[in-house]
Specification:
Helix 7 packs across helix 8. The chain has a seven-stranded mixed β-sheet, sandwiched between helices. The chain is globular. The mean pLDDT is about 95. It is of the alpha/beta class and about 300 residues long. The protein contains 13 helices and seven strands. The protein folds into two domains: about 180 residues, Rossmann fold (3-Layer(aba) Sandwich), CATH 3.40.50; about 110 residues, Orthogonal Bundle (DNA polymerase, domain 1), CATH 1.10.150.
């Protein structure tokens, strides 16, 4: 949703922008191309992706800065901004680079069960699966993947592990597919929810997301915009609820004649609902089908 992101960020007006998930540099490049007055601070957890982004953005030397960090750690990168930014973009999906690196992010991958967005730190998905018990694994599948067959799938995964049949991502996809009854195989691959759950757990994707939204709004200049693109209901719900809370004014009981809380809105929501990708974009890029783009403007 590059076009929608650029339009809502108003990148053509220039100023500093933060690309919180720089990836291969596609969004950053589009921002820099939108205006010669635009500057970008790119942040990414993956050092390899940052190297690729640096090559992508090479024609714009002097107009961008790249930092290896988790975008939620705003204190680590906000100091690089010479002024409050005009816009902050967080595309919460996987980058094309990560999907190509054989880290087991996809059920179509025959790579290792790594699933770390930052391969330099933290435990892998395989390490988690080797140590987890059935109850713990089922909880992760249920809470982060919304998998209705969480317990049977967890049992099948651990049985395959104990038989020594849980090698790479392709093995995991096969085990999960066999554990889910054929009648429950829908439009998406039956292992989709399991892979989502493990990825979220390994990377702690939901932890601190609401805090990030609040912090990002606080960094923006007045009139600046935060744009967040989410790809599943769990993260979108956190973003939506946090933005709605920041856009809300007085929270006093209706019976009070005068406001006692003193609360005022910090943002205004741009658009009543999340933007969705166009049919043409979904046809060209099926992985975008679940994307939801939300925008808030600092008051």
């Amino acid at each position: 949703m590059v076009r929608e992101a650029l339009k809502t960020l108003r990148a053509e007006e220039g100023g500093w922008f933060v690309d919180c998930t720089a990836g291969l540099g596609g969004h950053s490049r589009a921002i820099l191309e939108a205006s010669p007055a635009a500057r970008v601070l790119g942040v990414d957890r993956d050092p390899g992706a940052l190297e690729a982004a640096h090559e992508t953005l090479a024609p714009f030397a002097g107009r961008f800065t790249l930092i290896h960090a988790n975008f939620k750690d705003t204190d680590l990168w906000s100091g690089e901004l010479p002024e409050p930014p005009a816009g902050i973009l967080a595309d919460l999906g996987l980058s094309g680079y990560q999907l190509k690196m054989g880290r087991g992010f996809s059920f179509r991958d025959d790579g290792e069960l790594d699933m770390r967005m930052d391969p330099t730190r933290g435990g892998t998905a395989r390490e988690f699966l080797m140590a987890a018990d059935e109850a713990e694994l089922a909880r992760v599948l249920r809470d982060y993947g919304e998998e209705p067959m969480a317990r049977p799938v967890a049992r099948a995964i651990l049985a395959a592990r104990d038989r020594g049949e849980l090698g790479g991502a392709d093995d995991l996809a096969r085990v999960v597919s066999e554990a889910i009854p054929r009648r429950m195989h829908g439009k998406i691959h039956p292992a989709t929810r399991t892979f989502q759950a493990l990825r979220i757990h390994v990377n702690r994707e939901l932890e601190g997301l609401g805090d990030f939204v609040e912090a990002a709004i606080g960094l923006l200049r007045r009139g600046g915009r935060l744009v967040v693109i989410a790809y599943h209901s769990l993260e979108d719900r956190i973003v939506k609820q946090t933005l709605r809370a920041l856009a809300k004014g007085c929270v006093c009981p209706p019976k009070l004649p005068v406001c006692a809380c003193g609360r005022t809105p910090i943002v205004k929501l741009v658009g009543a609902r999340a933007l969705r990708p166009s049919p043409a974009e979904v046809a060209a890029n099926p992985s975008s089908r679940s994307a939801r783009l939300r925008v808030a403007e600092r008051l």
